[in-house]
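This week, work through this protein record:
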Amino acid sequence: MKTFIRIILLLLCVINAHSQNYLSALIPRPNSIVQETGKPFKVDIHKTSIYINHPDLAFSAQTLQQIFKEQMQSDVSLSQNPSATIQLLISPQMEGEEHYYLHVKKDKIQIKGKSPRAVFYGIMTLHQLLLGDVCSTQQKRIVPITIDDTPRFPYRALMIDPARHFIPVEDVKFYIDQMVHYKYNVLQLHLTDDQGWRIEIKKYPQLASTEHYTQDELRDLIEYAALRNVEIIPEVDVPGHTVAILAAYPELGCTSSQNITKEVGKTTNLMLCASNKKVYEVYQNILDEVADLFPSQYIHLGGDESAIDTNWGQCEHCQALMKQMGYTKTSQLMIPFFDHMLGILEKKEKSPILWCELDSIFPPVTDYLFPYPKSVTLVSWRGQLTPSCLEFTSQSGHALIMAPGEYAYLDYPQLKGDLPEFNNWGMPVTTLKRCYEFDPGYGVSPTKQNHIQGIMGTLWGEAIQDINRLTYMTYPRALALAEAGWTQLEHRDWKSFKQRLYPNLTWLMKKGVSIRVPFEIARE
């Protein structure tokens, strides 16, 4: 009977050999792969064990144990012997914080990196080797290989929007579990908007919407993410997208909005008053708590889509301030407004991120909406304007994160006629192939893209009501963006990516992740 099973297994392997091999699930594709010769590594619970050379690798070791248990039904033990058959090593002399080296040979697996994060990414790559080579994995074997890998960009983010539709903590953790598999290292939480204020501020408890995160819940979430090498960056949007706070504190708005009823979730296009000293006093207290809660170096302050003319342009106090400052354009009031806000962050030793706004929302453009201080990291997002934003930031020396709407807005439909079926304002279609075509450097010379920090896929929440819709809109397009953020252009190939996609879709479904099946790519 055992012989018969072996024969069947061998036949299955031969049948699937054309489509399944040990490289067929690698997303993002590593930047250096050497397929070695020789006999495979055999996982044997009596001989195989895992050694770590630093206590910070304990979680990575546990993760690898889980992988062997799930993929090979093998309980691999930990060892204190440096000569153990599997070695996870921090190697400080390696260059690049996320640089890892994975070497598999007959009698040893070694994964080393400059940091615990790098070693963890090596384990994610090893996991994908097992997913891609089903036949060897079933036989508890890993073929010889050497992978020497480091990312193209250090900042690889996804952004979710609990402000518009709340996402419970356990669902956010579930989301983190999937994104780390593809080497994303930042999760931005859009916490405040016209539709809700989702973070507890102890000094102003009335701010919090019915569904919100307590500070204790956020501490737990931050710790959970950090263990998985994900940095959580909070976004507290100002001066627009602020109806949630104006509903609680209407006196923070402009004189032109004092008689407007503020309904959270319905009222839009109101702003904080640029000339009101209480605005800065309140946000001093808010941002103090946010800065103390989140260990990230960064706090995102929004700065986008502000209805300047209908708020500051019609506010008697803002107009008086404009005259006092000698300004000729109302948008120049952004200068003192953000001078105040950024000053608050500077005192807390935090760095600001803002959405990049230019002097027009459509081409042609000639400059920024206002002169951004050099300390600001900008995010390019508006469709058609990213080339201009890239050029301006290259000239001004601002760090830049690439999230162009035409490639990276994952709340957009994935195919004509596909979801979302509500709150769809005529969204353009962003297909999987379109996402994969994204080159964050836009083909400019290396010297003109040195300031690009990385990429971000955004999932605005107007039409994303729960975790199942969130992951459906994320995957598989986030796999394409992951490769844009990690893999050098010369190693990227759409045809190869399509083949490497299939084992990952299967894995995600087995994990209970709601995904969109990209049937259209098989018809090309």
